Amino acid sequence: MAGAGDGGAGAGGQPLPFKEALFCFFVSIATILGTGILALPVKLYECGFGPFVVTFLFALLAQTGVVWLMVEILQRAEHRMAHSASGPQASPSLHSLAAMYLARPIRFVFNLSAMVHFVSLLIGYVLAWSKAFCQLAGCEDRVVITPFVIVFTAAIVIFNKQLQPLVTTLTFIKCVMLIVMVGVVGYIGSKADIDPSTSWPAMGSPFLIGTIALGGVVNVMPVLYERIPKSSTAIRQFRSSVTAGVAVCWALNILW
Asked: Where are the bilayer-spanning segments (predicted)?
């Protein structure tokens, strides 16, 4: 895995700063944890806990493989960009990766798919936040959606770097709140008079939603990769930080 990438990385063993490693770890968690985890119990009900753990373990192995493969691709792409032209080169992005490795028709489909994916994802978060806020505040969501989009989009565009430590802190709070909710739900479930059932033939039922609940981190890895020192040590630590984020999300989903 480290062959071509480490050759393209800077010489030496400059480590990844702890602050950056923590940032990559929590951003990975924030990217993965979303609506998928909330939908898992609906599908889990059809097969039971045991079959779900088996299918979800395959999802963990697949996502770990995707993370390691993406790190390798980013290193190869950076090495190729550095030797293709003179002058400073930008870090690899999803668009540049498509331009380097895909034929023109497939490249167009990939870029279009990426745009649709990110736009639909952002729309989902906007609607979810607006609905949740309006239910707590007792107001119409149509009044909240537009100001929410304008204010927070402007804040992210203008104060991107200043907000990054806040995103890390809020992600940590989000994980703590999720763990608390897992405990509360577990306590309530222990008081409910329901006999759990297991159906191995239905073990494929939660597979799709499981991949959604554990996927998505590869979309932000090019952005995170841009922040790290290009040494073999830092790249290994970056890969470990993202992989650890995937593993923590897997454990949180299992507990949930």
From this structure: 21-42, 48-71, 108-130, 142-159, 166-187, 207-225, 237-255
